[in-house]
Queue: 2 jobs
Job 1
Amino acid sequence: MTQSNIQPSNRTSFPIPLKAVIIDLDGTLLDTAQDLALAANAMLRELHMAELPLSTIQSFIGKGVPKLVKRTLTNSPDDEPDPALFEQALPIYERCYAENLHVYTRPYPGVIEGLEQLKQSGFRLICITNKTEIFTLPLLHKTGLRDYFELVLSGDSLPKRKPDPLPLLHACKHFSVLPNAALLIGDSSNDAIAARAAGCHIFCVPYGYNEGHDVHKLDCDAVVNSIVEANSLITCQRDA
Ligand SMILES: O=C(O)COP(=O)(O)O
Ligand SMILES: [Mg+2]
């Protein structure tokens, strides 16, 4: 671990007395982009619309399934599709994704090892994702990650999702952990904004999606190359 990974503008003074580590799913634990794109393009074909490149669909990941469908239909990050078209498209997308949940999706390098180490280090482990619960839980089971987490919160588990701080605050309250004793590891501005708003620490990984933007520009405490690196940073700081 090199000190250069610690952001100069960070608000965290090390060592961090952590009790809980919260980890994002898409783009942090699992590389889901190919299967999300496969389902998005299958939906477009059924609607007799032109398919989109993987890189474009990848930049639409981050704010949950309904937003991914809207972005795919309009080929834009913020435009609203015709409501009738969206109503027709959403169940098609959900069916296509349910059928292709685990074709190419795999944990990123260092994820299993990193989760093992975090567990050994004694942290409470929580997964918080904007993905819809009907997809989150089967995917965590299929990839062998489910049992690492004491709590899993999906995009539709609570009234608000990331970047709102609600899921993080809910998790902290659930385990009676103060927000500043919790670290979120994520890949996007949704994670960084939610963590700051909740008062949690935030590390980002550079290999995820971040809606097509450079993760180094995010307000986070460190950019770590893997979950293993996140564990070494917090445990070596803790043991220092
Ligand atoms: O489903 C999404 O849009 C992103 O999910 P994430 O919060 O796990 O990155
Ligand atoms: Mg993510």
Job 2
Amino acid sequence: MHQIAMIGTGSMGSMMTLLFAENGVKMSIYDPSESNRKKAMDKAKQDGLESKVTAYSDYESLCNSLSSPKVFFFSVPHGSVGDAIVDSLWPYLEKGDIIIDGSNEHWENTQRRQGKLVVRGVGYVGMGVSGGYQSARGGASFSPGGEDWAVEAVMPFLRTVAAKDVEGNPCVQKMGAGGAGHYVKMIHNGIEQGMMSALCEVWGIMNSGLGLRYEEIADIFEKWNTKGELRENFLVGIGVDILKQKDPENKKHVLSEIQDKVVQDVDESEGTGVWTSEEGMRLHIPIPTITSGHQMRLASAYSTKRKRVSKAMGGRLVTPQSIECEDREGMIEQLRQATYITFLASFIQGLTLLARADDENRWGLDFSKIIAIWRGGCIIRSEHISELFLKVYKNASKEILSDPLANETVAAEFKNAFPALKKIVSRSIEADAYIPTLAATLEWLKYSTTEEGLPTEFEEAELDFFGWHMFDLKGHDSGKAVTGRYHFGWRSAKGIPEPSKIVRL
Ligand SMILES: NC(=O)C1=CN([C@@H]2O[C@H](COP(=O)(O)OP(=O)(O)OC[C@H]3O[C@@H](n4cnc5c(N)ncnc54)[C@H](OP(=O)(O)O)[C@@H]3O)[C@@H](O)[C@H]2O)C=CC1
Ligand SMILES: O=C(CO)[C@H](O)[C@H](O)COP(=O)(O)O
């Protein structure tokens, strides 16, 4: 691939422009904002790549600058922006042209555009790009999906610019047809959000509960990141830098100056977390670690609302207390284990959802390949977890593919760390610490691993009482998620006789 048109030269697009140019590609760039185009050109100059990069201010000249078949790369906001760009390119598209959409696009938008472009013989590759702008510059993790011919055509180039894992393998693999690539990236981001919330909760417990200073927490995270289950975990690693960084002007920690608001879901600049939660509900897969973290983040965005409610309560309902602890080292080890299994829960939930979507869409995803591309470059990279899943998915049965929590090695990891998570959750509740993902993971583990004896038998009775929804009988469970065959006449509707014993219908 000798020439690419980059559309959207913001944080990611400008960095990938440099990465691609550095790898010998002649880059034509377009962005509606003149100042963004200028910034991108300035960066190219700075890196000695100006001869490889040319900016265009309209689509006609952008397209005229390319030889056939033309290759476009989108790095733009999701939704209507991508549609508008496809419409603008429409007059210039020819059979054999390829669009690589490297934005975080909704997988159904990707499939809709693929359907529209297929009649023109244009390939539309929906591709997740992970790793943030630093990886976009140095090599990111890519998950391309779409028509075989189009994905195959771009794979050799992607292999050269992708991040490399610890064994030197490029972090890019063909995912599947349609919107598979963007779906995989959406799941990646869902997992990422569960993990980020867990880590911020644990940071909060250490800081407010144990009274540890930022530098002390940085040292702990550094140790965690060096060996054991959290080794070479990207989020823990950057946590160390975040905890050490001081504002050169006032010498305060930068972190201490940051407002507690995450707004990118609420302002709709990003959508992947919302879509993951929606997909979990649509496909009936419990993903509480992911959704609970996401929900705290949603609430965090509304700072005015939080103030208003707090005022209505005559002051804040809770203030995290200090945690009295005789064995501080022991508690820090429990926190490490709790972090690890909450991360692992986020992975398992995301992968279980992905398996269900794969089943629905018949993408034929290869889960070993997905784990492989998440081993380098990306935000959720975590060496122990990657190694664990590479083993799990090697020759995995159909049952384990759809239910990785039932793998014995995975189950042993959870069983081992469960007591630590339980201790941390109960101490944190006592101390009013914020622990949505830790608590949700604990409950998820409890109810997902109980063979029989959930309190939902009471719920099933209530449903049958008021709605004639029927139930299964203990000892006669078919094991299938289908309506039970039994009913009891709990209370008759006016004048209508009801069975006075359990009846099979
Ligand atoms: N930041 C990150 O860590 C990652 C982001 N992504 C995804 O990559 C994409 C780009 O993200 P990021 O670089 O952070 O975002 P930015 O906002 O920095 O960049 C988006 C660029 O697209 C431009 N743009 C807006 N509307 C149009 C249009 N109609 N036609 C062409 N260009 C347009 C924007 O211009 P203007 O500024 O004038 O609006 C901006 O330059 C998003 O989909 C994001 O979800 C993926 C992985 C990581
Ligand atoms: O895609 C990304 C990383 O993988 C981007 O950083 C994105 O901004 C994360 O957004 P969100 O937390 O809303 O998923």
